[in-house]
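Shipment paperwork, digital attachment
Item: protein structure file
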Amino acid sequence: MTLQINTKAEHADAYWLRANTKTKNVKLRLICFPYAGGGARMFLPWQKELGESIEVLAYKLAGRESRLRAALYADWSTLLDELIDAIGMLDQDYGECPYVIFGHSFGARIAFELTRKLEALQKPLPLQLFLSACRAPSEPCILPYMYNLDSSAFYARVAKMGGTPAHILEDKRLMRMLEPILRSDMALSELWPDSERTPVNVKITALSGVHDKIDPPMVMQAWQNYTHNNFELICFEGEHFFLHSHQNQLLRQIENECKQLME
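Attachment content:
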């Protein structure tokens, strides 16, 4: 049994995985949040692809990687309070820099809710949101909830989603270790309150897989109702995890839009 603890970090390194430490040429930060069960390290290869002018910062969610002993999030309030503290450390510890946010699936929910919280607190906002493979708040889940299934059915749904490598699914011991993390993330994701949501004053670029059966393009178009700024929906050939299968096309889209912001 792993002891889980809650402690407040004193430096940004406790929360952020920084792929580029040579920040002399950085003009924009790309803050990244992973899908349910995902970790910050999945974004490390992005730094090489995006170059030195864009600094990739990936968030280390509780219960995994270097934060293995940190308590999993009991609710959205706990997660958002932590994120506000972590965002506040960026300029203090890494230097001031404008930023954009990318989130995939559960990570997109995090990106949007964090932006709403920042706006409510009158704190500096991201220049743009890249919300990937995530239904808009007004759209109900297409598939039945899975966070509360028994283990056998839960594993079957995880496998069907397609984002977990076969060798991990076949490792029963590893899956037992990952199950609490996946369930916690999926609970927040599926029980995401879909009541009234105030639009943000930030441009939203919705990114969708044409063949996504979990969050198809039709449930992402409604993101246009959640911004007072510009909106666009970009579709890629691929399913829910197109960020892996079509990584190059996705990064070129993000890079091109970031370059426009840096001009």
